[in-house]
Automatic annotation (TrEMBL):
The complex is composed of two ATP-binding proteins (UgpC), two transmembrane proteins (UgpA and UgpE) and a solute-binding protein (UgpB). GO terms for cellular component: plasma membrane. It holds the Pfam family BPD_transp_1. One of its GO terms (biological process) is transmembrane transport. Keywords: Cell inner membrane, Cell membrane, Membrane, Transmembrane, Transmembrane helix, Transport. Its main location: membrane. This is sn-glycerol-3-phosphate transport system permease protein UgpA. InterPro entries: MetI-like (IPR000515), MetI-like_sf (IPR035906), UgpAE/MalFG_permease (IPR050809). It is a multi-pass membrane protein. Part of the ABC transporter complex UgpBAEC involved in sn-glycerol-3-phosphate (G3P) import. Probably responsible for the translocation of the substrate across the membrane. It comes from Elstera litoralis. The chain crosses the membrane at residues 15-34, 79-100, 112-131, 209-231, 270-291.
């Protein structure tokens, strides 16, 4: 057998790889690309609520959004919300992964319990924390009121935002925990032992060895968590606050739903979804362009 022939694929069927990829390609086309094209098209028209007539409006829907103070407030609120959810979920999951990696007895049970929240739907996670923190019937909510804290997220916008941030971050911790734990377990113990022999304490070993080796995992999770905060937290917010009180928890993804489904502003809602998509794409590009420079592979 010649070297050229040994480098060839073990089968010559060129159609089989395409057939294996076909289901995923169809799903991506139908549920991602086609809705995106539809959103761009609808954002250029003004439609009646029943879709019976439409009028070409060009960029008027986009111009109307940025002249709307409520939309600008929702835009700023979404940036704060995504940053808070990403920071909280990443920091807590890293802490839990470090603790679980050191556990010897009962390690499997600890890791299983930490993974369970990932199987919970976002809406269910929101309902869970709503019942826990409710000022009248919630266990923690009633305890806070009994301790003299003026706790009522149904009326206080800052408390409502804090609650949905915590609920959304709690839902994402398990996903981050899986990757951080896998990254920790892939670090050679010989490096840690050599650093300990050289006199490096636990904090210095984590700063100089563990975290740099975890940076590719942390960068990947940073991108995933920001996308999650922008797109996948609708169920949490809808279940806990429904955007209230007084729109204090209405982030961009929820405003798209409210204006399109409740307000029946099809063109304006489509324009919002296009802008939201562009924001996430821009943030992802910025992260890969600048943040990745500090990642050590």
């Amino acid at each position: 057998m010649t070297p050229a022939s040994s480098a060839q694929a073990p089968f010559s069927n060129k159609l089989l790889p395409l057939l294996l990829l076909l289901p995923q390609l169809v799903i991506t086309l139908v549920f991602f690309y086609w809705p995106s094209v539809q959103a761009v098209q609808q954002s250029l028209y003004i439609e009646d609520p029943f879709g019976l007539s439409s009028e070409f409006a060009g960029l008027k829907n986009f111009a109307a959004l940025f002249s709307d103070a409520r939309y600008v407030e929702s835009f700023v609120r979404s940036l704060f919300f995504s940053a808070a959810v990403s920071a909280l979920s990443l920091s807590l999951s890293l802490l839990l992964a470090v603790c679980a990696d050191r556990v010897v007895r009962g390690a499997t049970a600890y890791k299983t319990l930490l993974l369970l929240p990932y199987a919970i739907a976002p809406a269910l996670a929101g309902v869970t924390w709503m019942f826990v923190m409710h000022p009248s019937i919630g266990l923690m909510g009633r305890w806070l009121v009994a301790m003299g804290v003026e706790w009522n997220y149904l009326l206080n916008g800052n408390q409502a935002m804090a609650l949905v941030i915590f609920a959304a971050a709690w839902k994402q911790i398990s996903y981050n925990f899986i990757f951080f734990l896998a990254g920790l377990q892939s670090i050679p113990q010989s490096l840690m032992e050599a650093a300990a022999i050289d006199g490096a304490g636990p904090g210095k070993r984590f700063r100089d060895i563990v975290f740099p080796l975890l940076s590719p995992t942390a960068f990947f999770l940073l991108v995933v968590n920001i996308v999650y905060a922008f797109f996948e937290t609708f169920g949490v917010i809808h279940a806990v606050t429904a955007g209230g009180p007084a729109k204090s928890t209405e982030i961009l993804v929820y405003k798209v739903y409210f204006d399109g489904v409740v307000g029946l502003d099809i063109g304006g809602s489509a324009a919002q979804s296009v802008i939201l998509m562009l924001i996430v794409i821009l943030l992802t590009v910025v992260q890969f362009r600048f943040v990745e420079r500090k990642v050590h592979y």
